[in-house]
Amino acid sequence: MWCVRGILRDYDWGEIDGLAQWSHATGTPQAELWFGIHPAAPAIVVDREGIATGETLDAVMPPQRNPLLVKLLAAARPLSIQVHPARALAAELSARGALPDSEEKTEILTALEPFRIHAGWRDLDLARRVLVEAGVPEEAISSSATHADTVRTLLDLSPGVVAQAVAQLSEAAKTCGYDDAAVESLRSIAAEFPTDAGVLVCVMMQHSVLAPGQTIGVSAGIIHSYVRGLGVEVMTSSDNVLRLGLTTKMVNVDDALAALCDVPPTDGSDFPFCVCELRDEARVLPASYRVVIPLEGHVEASGPQGQVQAAVGCALVMGEHEPEVTVRVSGRAIVAEGR
């Protein structure tokens, strides 16, 4: 077992000091706090006093079959429209240097506060009606046979048409019957990205507001964009993202469209890992790859190798070859387990 400290990621869509209660105040955007062995930001191993040992988790932990990457996430602005490639495409793109790793990325998002998201496809005919109402030429999208065809058409529109349609989009969605939360999300995205055709793509995606404790599972191939909120992400140990808009980073339309599928989001119950929240209780965790992050208070894990504690800002990690352990939570914690 190891006690580790997470690595803070300061992407521009993060909330100012949004993760300070689990890290430290910086006065800058705090987007994600990573707990894992991914080479982009492996967690820092700490001793019983919480002092860094000078080692990282990837260096001290034996190779794992199914490692997990667990993140605390604080979004103040919309994240990019994105899709994660399935394993074969990820391996191909990684081999040519277009992605950071060759793994298939599957993730679960659990809301800690109300979290607005777009994920999966809406009815295509309804989305087209909104787009035409907003000023997209009907002839430009009427012959598109699929969601992917329509996305490509929207991304190829002239800047003038895009800007005009984005300006009218939220009112068009309201006129066509989108609910108030979806309309408000479109309005906020349009305000952030007034000339980005990706805003038009958001019309085509299902919108949800996750209540605290609610989860959504996003497998490879599902289009999604997180809008705003505080949550926990648990995923296979991959940072592979193909983007379609709402970002200053590289947009890779061809590969992203090739990665798309029509499978809807799920609750993640069929994923190769599970996620739960514990409050002031004890639970036996079977042998697997396990990550326990205290959100409030502290956690303690005990097993044949002894006891290890972690307070807020740190996490406990157990490898898949270690025996079962008993975890005691004083407060509130997130537990992620490989299956």
What brief labels describe this structure?
9 helices; nine-stranded antiparallel β-sheet; 339 residues; Jelly Rolls; alpha+beta; eight-stranded antiparallel β-sheet
Apparent shape: elongated
Instruction: Give helix and strand order, one letter per element, not per position.
Output: EEEEEEEHEEHEEHHHHHHEEEEHEEEEEE
Oligomeric state, counting identical vs distinct chains: single chain
Distance between the termini: 18 Å
Tally of separate domains: 3
Helix/strand structural class: alpha+beta
Helical content stands at 10-25%
Uncertain spans: none
- The level 1 CATH classification of the largest domain is Mainly Beta
| Count of alpha/pi helices | 9
Q: Kindly estimate the percentage of residues that lie in beta strands according to DSSP.
A: 35-45%
Describe the structure.
The strands form four sheets. Strands 1, 6, 7, 16, 17, 18, 19, 20 and 21 form a nine-stranded antiparallel beta sheet that branches. α3 packs across α6 (159-175) and α6 packs antiparallel against α7 (180-192). The chain starts with a strand and ends with a strand. 23% of the residues lie in helices and 36% in strands. The protein has nine helices and 21 strands. The chain has three domains: 8-118 and 210-259, Jelly Rolls (Sandwich); 123-198, no CATH class; 276-338, Jelly Rolls (Sandwich). By secondary structure, it is an alpha+beta fold. The mean pLDDT is 95. The radius of gyration is 21 Å and the shape is elongated.
